[in-house]
């Protein structure tokens, strides 16, 4: 099978790293592991982060031009399926449903969300397009239980809904951390939810009792100065290392004692899977999405930084507890969150939708 792949929020070859880009790339790797050919058919970004009606109209016009281009392309005849990653009200798939309808091929979505409350307000046009695209899908693969609730509620008759656990683009686990290094936080430095997580981290550090804690922070972005200001009171106990990827990031996971990331409004957070694959215990809050991938019990958001500090102190104080928690997390990732498991789910979804 040859699968046309499209990601309206961020293309797999987008220059800026993010969880969305990583997940799009992982989907391609899983499809290819299952024996399917893939073609990234468009790099058009259909994203409106402000609720701008004029921008939405402009993007709709560009999407129509892209539809015309794709339907007259030489590659279109080879596509047996179309898969769209992350259709939602700020980045609806304006292209896939039309192309699939014209070509008569199955249309699948991964990590789509429904938000009917957005059908009024500044994103109304995009929200309507997102809902229509979701309605048009033959199958929707959801990553978290939270997303599945509205997908089930609003699914048209005959639409297939399948759980695809979030996964890493790896066939096997990396080397296990020796758990002897500093704590680790990994996250883009953006205003909004990411900065809220960094704020909680700084509040947690101020309440910790363990005398010898240290923290490495990996990430960068427009809120870097804000993050630096939050961490300044802790002096050289906190080190900001900037953006790291690949082997450079793996080196941090290879020695981290634990991962501290509260997870404010995370969809799920690939950093949790990366850390747990290396056998690193995670301290996070018990939030929708986060609980789909983080092993163990974690404090409720209402318990605030004091509860996070208690969990961190307990892990730092006992190497055996850290090792046991990390081993349980590592086993969970091996069983459910690597490429082989994802490839099986995606392969079956394609076969179930075969024309």
- The number of domains is 2
Oligomer state equals single chain
Classified in CATH, the superfamily of the largest domain is Glycogen Phosphorylase B
Low-confidence spans: none
> CATH class of the largest domain, anyone?
Alpha Beta
User: Could you say what the CATH topology of the largest domain is called?
Assistant: Rossmann fold
CATH architecture group name of the largest domain: 3-Layer(aba) Sandwich
Structural class from helices and strands? alpha/beta
Protein name: Glycosyltransferase family 4 protein
Pfam family, one: Glyco_trans_1_4
Organism: Pseudosulfitobacter koreensis
InterPro entries: Glycosyltransferase_grp1
Please describe what this structure looks like.
- It is built from 12 helices and 11 strands.
- 42% of the residues lie in helices and 12% in strands.
- It starts with a strand and ends with a helix.
- Helix 9 (270-277) links the parallel strand 10 and strand 11.
- The chain has 2 domains: 2-170 and 338-352, Rossmann fold; 183-336, Glycogen Phosphorylase B (Rossmann fold).
- The protein is globular, with a radius of gyration of 21 Å.
- Helix 6 (193-207) packs parallel to helix 7.
- It has helices at residues 19-33, 53-71, 96-103, 124-136, 145-154, 193-207, 224-231, 246-253, 270-277, 304-317, 319-336, 339-352; strands spanning 2-6, 37-40, 81-85, 107-110, 139-142, 160-163, 183-186, 215-218, 238-240, 259-260, 282-283.
- A 6-stranded parallel beta sheet has the order 2-1-3-4-5-6, sandwiched between helices. It has a 3-stranded parallel beta sheet with strand order 7-8-9, covered by helices on one side.
- By secondary structure, it is of the alpha/beta class.
């Amino acid at each position: 099978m040859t699968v046309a792949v499209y990601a309206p929020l961020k293309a797999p070859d987008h220059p800026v790293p993010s969880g969305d880009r990583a997940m799009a790339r992982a989907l391609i790797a899983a499809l290819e592991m299952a024996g399917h050919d893939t073609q990234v058919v468009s790099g058009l970004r259909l994203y409106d982060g402000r609720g701008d009606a004029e921008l939405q109209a402009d993007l709709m016009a560009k999407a129509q031009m892209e539809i015309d281009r794709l339907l007259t392309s030489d590659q279109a005849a080879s596509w047996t399926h179309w898969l769209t990653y992350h259709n939602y009200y700020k980045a609806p798939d304006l292209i896939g449903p039309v192309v699939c309808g014209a070509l008569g091929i199955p249309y699948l979505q991964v990590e789509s969300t429904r938000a009917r409350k957005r059908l009024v307000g500044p994103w109304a046009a995009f929200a309507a397009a997102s809902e229509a695209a979701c309605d048009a899908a033959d199958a929707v693969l959801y990553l978290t239980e939270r997303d599945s609730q509205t997908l089930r509620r609003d699914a048209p008759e005959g639409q297939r809904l399948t759980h695809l656990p979030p996964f890493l683009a790896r066939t096997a686990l990396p080397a296990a951390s020796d758990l002897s290094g500093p704590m680790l936080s990994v996250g883009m430095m953006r205003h909004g939810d990411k900065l809220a997580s960094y704020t909680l981290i700084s509040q947690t550090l101020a309440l910790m009792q363990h005398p010898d804690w240290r923290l490495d922070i990996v990430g960068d972005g427009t809120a870097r100065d804000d993050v630096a200001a939050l961490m300044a009171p802790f002096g050289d106990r906190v080190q900001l290392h900037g953006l790291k990827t690949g082997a450079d990031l793996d080196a941090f996971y290879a020695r981290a004692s634990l991962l501290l990331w509260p997870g404010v409004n995370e969809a799920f957070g690939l950093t949790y899977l990366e850390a747990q694959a290396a056998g690193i215990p995670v301290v996070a809050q018990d939030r929708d999405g986060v609980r789909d991938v983080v092993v163990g019990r974690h404090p409720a958001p209402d318990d605030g930084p004091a509860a996070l500090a208690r969990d961190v102190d307990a892990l730092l104080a006992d190497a055996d507890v850290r090792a046991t928690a990390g081993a349980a997390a590592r086993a969970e990732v091996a069983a459910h969150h690597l490429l082989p498991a994802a490839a099986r789910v995606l392969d079956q979804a394609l076969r179930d939708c075969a024309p």
